[in-house]
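Feature request, filed as a ticket because there's no other form

It would be nice if the structure record came with a short human-readable summary line next to the tokens. Right now we just get the raw output. Example of a typical job, pasted below so the devs can see what we mean:
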Amino acid sequence: MAALARDAGTPKLAFQVLFYPVTNYDFTTASYQANGTDYFLTTDMMRWFWGHYLRSEEDGRDWRASPLRLGNAAGLPPAFVVTAEFDPLRDEGEAYGELLRQAGNRVMIKRYEGQIHGFVTLLGAMEAGKQAIEYAAAELRRAFDSAA
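Raw output as currently delivered:
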């Protein structure tokens, strides 16, 4: 969405908060291999989600479905990318953050060690979830103050 907004010239986005983002239609990453069966989010679940999201596998190669395949990542808003150590999506989220950084965007990539996909929604029970929300909120406040 950030690239579409950039290309259209509107809306002007101030910041991106990406919690364990899905950025690529690819099940072959090391994090899928290591974390795709024994933790909350599984490879089979992701195949099911993608199967209900895409019309065909070809759609998965389109950057609008797989933003890691975006040709030009320059000029996108600053981002906070959150990943979890035991998440099959970890590698693609971190790779997307690196894509943004290499294109000259300001990016903070934070891997939460010992955590699984969904840990942020457990913020009442997991201190790491609370920390991620607090950091994201502080970054959003700074971005909105700068944009005003």
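Something like this underneath would help us a lot:
The longest strand covers residues 107-116.
Helices lie at 2-8, 30-35, 43-53, 90-102, 127-147.
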